[in-house]
Protein backbone atom coordinates (compact mmCIF):
# COMPACT_ATOMS: atom_id res chain seq x y z
CA UNK A 1 0.00 0.00 0.00
CA UNK A 2 1.09 3.54 -0.74
CA UNK A 3 0.23 6.35 1.66
CA UNK A 4 -1.18 9.15 -0.50
CA UNK A 5 -2.82 11.46 2.03
CA UNK A 6 -2.78 12.11 5.77
CA UNK A 7 -5.95 13.78 7.02
CA UNK A 8 -7.12 14.96 10.43
CA UNK A 9 -9.16 11.87 11.22
CA UNK A 10 -8.02 9.29 8.65
CA UNK A 11 -5.16 8.33 6.33
CA UNK A 12 -5.61 7.28 2.69
CA UNK A 13 -3.65 4.48 1.00
CA UNK A 14 -3.63 3.51 -2.69
CA UNK A 15 -4.23 -0.18 -3.39
CA UNK A 16 -2.90 -2.18 -6.32
CA UNK A 17 -6.47 -2.80 -7.48
CA UNK A 18 -6.97 0.90 -8.20
CA UNK A 19 -9.19 1.33 -5.15
CA UNK A 20 -8.23 3.09 -1.93
CA UNK A 21 -8.03 2.14 1.73
CA UNK A 22 -9.12 4.61 4.42
CA UNK A 23 -7.54 4.11 7.85
CA UNK A 24 -9.71 5.66 10.57
CA UNK A 25 -7.81 7.31 13.44
CA UNK A 26 -8.76 7.98 17.05
CA UNK A 27 -8.25 11.72 16.44
CA UNK A 28 -11.39 13.88 16.42
CA UNK A 29 -11.88 17.52 15.49
CA UNK A 30 -12.32 20.21 18.10
CA UNK A 31 -10.54 22.91 20.06
CA UNK A 32 -8.98 22.97 23.52
CA UNK A 33 -9.94 19.39 24.22
CA UNK A 34 -13.60 19.92 23.34
CA UNK A 35 -15.13 17.99 20.43
CA UNK A 36 -16.60 20.08 17.59
CA UNK A 37 -17.57 18.45 14.26
CA UNK A 38 -17.18 21.82 12.52
CA UNK A 39 -13.67 22.55 13.79
CA UNK A 40 -10.64 22.74 11.47
CA UNK A 41 -8.17 21.22 13.91
CA UNK A 42 -7.73 17.96 15.79
CA UNK A 43 -8.84 18.86 19.30
CA UNK A 44 -8.48 15.56 21.13
CA UNK A 45 -7.91 11.83 20.88
CA UNK A 46 -10.68 9.42 21.88
CA UNK A 47 -9.50 5.83 22.19
CA UNK A 48 -11.68 3.65 19.97
CA UNK A 49 -13.04 6.60 18.00
CA UNK A 50 -11.65 5.24 14.74
CA UNK A 51 -13.41 1.88 14.99
CA UNK A 52 -16.57 3.53 16.30
CA UNK A 53 -16.63 5.96 13.40
CA UNK A 54 -16.07 3.18 10.91
CA UNK A 55 -18.77 0.99 12.47
CA UNK A 56 -21.36 3.74 12.07
CA UNK A 57 -20.10 4.58 8.59
CA UNK A 58 -20.49 0.94 7.52
CA UNK A 59 -23.99 0.86 9.03
CA UNK A 60 -25.17 4.01 7.29
CA UNK A 61 -23.46 3.36 3.95
CA UNK A 62 -25.14 -0.03 3.77
CA UNK A 63 -28.48 1.63 4.59
CA UNK A 64 -27.88 4.07 1.73
CA UNK A 65 -27.09 1.19 -0.63
CA UNK A 66 -30.46 -0.37 0.26
CA UNK A 67 -32.09 2.97 -0.61
CA UNK A 68 -30.29 3.14 -3.96
CA UNK A 69 -28.14 6.15 -3.02
CA UNK A 70 -24.65 5.98 -4.54
CA UNK A 71 -21.49 6.04 -2.39
CA UNK A 72 -17.84 5.13 -2.86
CA UNK A 73 -18.08 2.36 -0.21
CA UNK A 74 -16.94 -1.18 -1.04
CA UNK A 75 -16.34 -2.92 2.30
CA UNK A 76 -14.91 -2.42 5.77
CA UNK A 77 -12.72 -4.17 8.35
CA UNK A 78 -13.85 -2.93 11.77
CA UNK A 79 -11.04 -4.64 13.71
CA UNK A 80 -8.38 -2.90 11.62
CA UNK A 81 -10.40 0.33 11.35
CA UNK A 82 -10.10 0.34 7.56
CA UNK A 83 -12.56 0.87 4.72
CA UNK A 84 -12.05 0.06 1.04
CA UNK A 85 -13.54 2.59 -1.37
CA UNK A 86 -13.73 3.37 -5.06
CA UNK A 87 -11.58 6.22 -6.36
CA UNK A 88 -13.37 9.56 -6.54
CA UNK A 89 -12.30 13.09 -7.44
CA UNK A 90 -13.39 15.96 -5.19
CA UNK A 91 -14.88 19.28 -6.28
CA UNK A 92 -12.11 21.84 -6.62
CA UNK A 93 -9.80 21.30 -3.65
CA UNK A 94 -12.66 19.85 -1.66
CA UNK A 95 -16.01 21.05 -0.33
CA UNK A 96 -18.15 20.05 2.63
CA UNK A 97 -21.95 20.05 2.61
CA UNK A 98 -23.84 20.62 5.85
CA UNK A 99 -27.49 19.80 6.44
CA UNK A 100 -28.89 21.69 9.44
CA UNK A 101 -32.02 20.89 11.39
CA UNK A 102 -31.29 23.23 14.31
CA UNK A 103 -29.24 26.41 14.68
CA UNK A 104 -25.90 25.43 16.20
CA UNK A 105 -22.17 25.90 15.69
CA UNK A 106 -20.92 28.09 12.87
CA UNK A 107 -24.49 28.84 11.70
CA UNK A 108 -25.21 30.44 15.05
CA UNK A 109 -21.86 32.26 15.10
CA UNK A 110 -22.61 33.81 11.72
CA UNK A 111 -26.29 34.54 12.11
CA UNK A 112 -26.64 35.01 15.86
CA UNK A 113 -28.18 38.45 15.36
CA UNK A 114 -31.21 36.72 13.87
CA UNK A 115 -31.04 33.10 15.06
CA UNK A 116 -31.48 31.60 18.50
CA UNK A 117 -29.50 28.60 19.66
CA UNK A 118 -31.30 25.39 18.86
CA UNK A 119 -34.12 26.94 16.85
CA UNK A 120 -35.54 24.57 14.21
CA UNK A 121 -34.23 24.78 10.63
CA UNK A 122 -35.87 23.09 7.66
CA UNK A 123 -33.00 20.88 6.45
CA UNK A 124 -30.97 23.97 5.57
CA UNK A 125 -28.17 23.01 3.18
CA UNK A 126 -24.96 24.99 2.89
CA UNK A 127 -21.66 24.33 1.12
CA UNK A 128 -18.29 25.34 2.56
CA UNK A 129 -14.83 25.18 1.04
CA UNK A 130 -12.31 22.86 2.68
CA UNK A 131 -9.85 25.62 3.52
CA UNK A 132 -8.43 25.55 7.04
CA UNK A 133 -6.53 28.81 6.58
CA UNK A 134 -9.78 30.67 5.85
CA UNK A 135 -11.89 28.73 8.37
CA UNK A 136 -13.85 26.78 5.73
CA UNK A 137 -15.80 29.73 4.30
CA UNK A 138 -19.39 29.18 3.07
CA UNK A 139 -19.82 29.57 -0.68
CA UNK A 140 -22.94 30.24 -2.75
CA UNK A 141 -24.33 28.27 -5.69
CA UNK A 142 -23.40 31.10 -8.09
CA UNK A 143 -19.83 31.36 -6.80
CA UNK A 144 -19.33 27.59 -7.06
CA UNK A 145 -20.37 27.75 -10.71
CA UNK A 146 -18.45 30.92 -11.62
CA UNK A 147 -15.24 29.65 -10.01
CA UNK A 148 -15.50 26.31 -11.84
CA UNK A 149 -15.78 24.24 -8.67
CA UNK A 150 -19.08 22.62 -9.62
CA UNK A 151 -21.84 23.45 -12.07
CA UNK A 152 -25.33 24.65 -11.20
CA UNK A 153 -26.70 21.24 -12.21
CA UNK A 154 -24.15 19.47 -10.00
CA UNK A 155 -25.05 21.79 -7.11
CA UNK A 156 -28.70 20.81 -7.42
CA UNK A 157 -27.74 17.12 -7.38
CA UNK A 158 -25.53 17.72 -4.35
CA UNK A 159 -28.34 19.50 -2.50
CA UNK A 160 -30.89 16.81 -3.34
CA UNK A 161 -28.58 14.00 -2.22
CA UNK A 162 -27.72 15.88 0.97
CA UNK A 163 -31.38 16.20 1.93
CA UNK A 164 -32.10 12.56 1.06
CA UNK A 165 -29.14 11.20 3.00
CA UNK A 166 -29.73 13.56 5.92
CA UNK A 167 -33.33 12.38 6.20
CA UNK A 168 -32.28 8.72 6.21
CA UNK A 169 -29.75 9.36 8.98
CA UNK A 170 -32.29 11.46 10.88
CA UNK A 171 -34.90 8.71 10.68
CA UNK A 172 -32.44 6.03 11.82
CA UNK A 173 -31.42 8.12 14.85
CA UNK A 174 -35.05 8.88 15.69
CA UNK A 175 -35.72 5.15 16.09
CA UNK A 176 -33.34 5.27 19.08
CA UNK A 177 -34.90 8.43 20.47
CA UNK A 178 -32.07 10.59 19.17
CA UNK A 179 -32.50 13.93 17.41
CA UNK A 180 -30.10 15.00 14.66
CA UNK A 181 -29.19 18.69 14.90
CA UNK A 182 -26.79 18.87 11.96
CA UNK A 183 -24.56 16.66 9.83
CA UNK A 184 -21.65 17.19 7.44
CA UNK A 185 -21.09 15.27 4.19
CA UNK A 186 -18.49 15.09 1.45
CA UNK A 187 -19.14 14.16 -2.17
CA UNK A 188 -17.03 13.31 -5.20
CA UNK A 189 -17.23 12.29 -8.84
CA UNK A 190 -16.68 8.68 -9.91
CA UNK A 191 -16.61 6.80 -13.21
CA UNK A 192 -16.03 8.39 -16.59
CA UNK A 193 -19.44 10.03 -16.59
CA UNK A 194 -18.60 11.98 -13.41
CA UNK A 195 -21.44 10.52 -11.35
CA UNK A 196 -21.77 12.25 -7.97
CA UNK A 197 -21.56 9.96 -4.93
CA UNK A 198 -21.22 10.31 -1.19
CA UNK A 199 -17.63 9.83 -0.01
CA UNK A 200 -15.69 9.90 3.27
CA UNK A 201 -17.85 8.85 6.24
CA UNK A 202 -21.09 9.15 8.22
CA UNK A 203 -20.19 8.95 11.89
CA UNK A 204 -20.61 10.64 15.23
CA UNK A 205 -17.56 12.71 14.37
CA UNK A 206 -19.38 14.66 11.67
CA UNK A 207 -22.77 15.23 13.25
CA UNK A 208 -24.39 16.75 16.32
CA UNK A 209 -26.92 14.41 17.90
CA UNK A 210 -28.91 14.86 21.10
CA UNK A 211 -31.00 12.57 23.31
CA UNK A 212 -33.36 14.08 25.89
CA UNK A 213 -31.67 17.43 25.31
CA UNK A 214 -28.19 16.08 26.06
CA UNK A 215 -25.40 15.98 23.48
CA UNK A 216 -24.19 12.47 22.62
CA UNK A 217 -20.44 12.03 22.09
CA UNK A 218 -19.28 9.99 19.05
CA UNK A 219 -18.36 6.83 21.00
CA UNK A 220 -21.65 6.80 22.88
CA UNK A 221 -23.61 7.41 19.69
CA UNK A 222 -22.06 4.34 18.09
CA UNK A 223 -22.94 2.21 21.13
CA UNK A 224 -26.56 3.38 21.14
CA UNK A 225 -27.09 3.04 17.40
CA UNK A 226 -25.55 -0.41 17.04
CA UNK A 227 -27.02 -1.94 20.18
CA UNK A 228 -29.87 -4.41 19.78
CA UNK A 229 -31.95 -2.75 22.49
Overall pLDDT, averaged? 92
- Tell me the distance between the termini: 39 Å
Give the overall form: globular
Radius of gyration: 17 Å
Which class of secondary structure composition applies to the elements?
alpha+beta
Low-confidence stretches: none
Beta content comes to: 25-35%
Largest sheet: 7 strands, antiparallel
Oligomeric assembly: single chain
Notes on the protein architecture:
The chain is α+β, with helices and mostly antiparallel strands. 28% of the residues lie in helices and 34% in strands. The strands form three sheets. Strands 9, 10, 11, 12, 13, 14 and 15 form a seven-stranded antiparallel β-sheet that branches. Strands 1-2-3-8-7 form a five-stranded antiparallel β-sheet, covered by helices on one side. A three-stranded antiparallel β-sheet has the order 5-4-6, with no helix packed on it. Strand 4 (27-31) and strand 5 (34-35) form a beta hairpin. Helix 1 crosses helix 5. The N and C termini lie far apart (39 Å).
Layout: helices, strands, pairs:
Blueprint: E1 2-6, E2 10-14, E3 20-24, E4 27-31, E5 34-35, E6 42-45, H1 49-66, E7 73-77, E8 82-85, E9 95-102, H2 105-111, E10 120-129, E11 138-139, H3 141-146, H4 152-174, E12 179-190, E13 195-199, E14 207-211, E15 214-215, H5 218-226
Helix pairs in contact: 1-5
Quickly list its features.
229 residues; five-stranded antiparallel beta sheet
Amino acid sequence: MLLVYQGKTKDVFALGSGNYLLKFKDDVTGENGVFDPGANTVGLVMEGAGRAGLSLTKYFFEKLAEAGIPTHYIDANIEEATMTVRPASVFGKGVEVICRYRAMGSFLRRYGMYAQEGQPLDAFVEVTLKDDERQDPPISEDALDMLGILSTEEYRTLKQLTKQIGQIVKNELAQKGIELYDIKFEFGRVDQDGKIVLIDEISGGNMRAYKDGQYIEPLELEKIMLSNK
